[in-house]
């Protein structure tokens, strides 16, 4: 990028005073450019003093936070049961933008999980039943056999959501909006939630 080219300004003055609205603006622009790729986010959890990160997908949101779905018996779920504090990171390289959030994670209601599960492709629904997530298996052939077995079990039937599969809501208490600059003097605007419920806006040095 030409250093003299004009980029939209990210500053304490121009940023939306509500971090949820600011995220919605950036995410919407990224999704229009990147499609489903824009929904990929790194979820970092930590239990027993060992951080772990993996990619999950943003699958919904509400006034409190952002939704993702997984197996409740998997490693990330077990870690969240021990420590519900987590971090989310979304990076849109083509737009020189990154959003980092810190907060807590809570389960969605059964109804919310049911509604999302019903919207998934049938193959994905069967996969949720067939895969014992994060457990060791001898080979892929066994996994494919389980898929066949559950496919036969639900043939011609509506597939219900497994009890051990569902959604989580990430509730942010901190946002960092990062905007890349060729000079490496990047813009970093942070929002920290105060006890009053209001958001404190500050700039970090790059």
Brief write-up:
The protein is 28% helix and 34% strand. The protein is of the alpha+beta class and 206 residues long.
Secondary-structure blueprint:
Layout: H1 19-34, E1 40-47, E2 50-57, E3 60-61, E4 66-71, H2 75-82, E5 85-92, E6 97-107, H3 110-119, H4 122-130, H5 140-153, E7 165-179, E8 187-193, E9 199-203
Antiparallel strand pairs: 1-2, 1-5, 3-4, 4-7, 5-6, 6-7, 7-8, 8-9
Q: List segments where confidence is low: pLDDT < 50 over at least 5 consecutive residues.
A: 1-5
Oligomer: single chain
Task: Sketch the major β-sheet.
Answer: 9 strands, antiparallel
Helix content: 25-40%
Average pLDDT confidence is: 94
Compute the number of strand runs: 9
Structural category is: alpha+beta
Query: What is the chain-wise order of helices and strands?
Result: HEEEEHEEHHHEEE
Shape: elongated
- How much of the polypeptide forms β-strand, as a percent range? 25-35%
Determine and state the CATH class of one domain.
Answer: Mainly Beta
Instruction: Supply the number of helical segments.
Output: 5
Q: What would you give as the CATH superfamily of one domain?
A: Electron Transport, Fmn-binding Protein, Chain A
Q: And the CATH topology of one domain?
A: Pnp Oxidase, Chain A
CATH architecture of one domain, by name, is Roll
- The value of Rg in angstroms is 20 Å
Alpha carbon gap, first and last residue: 19 Å
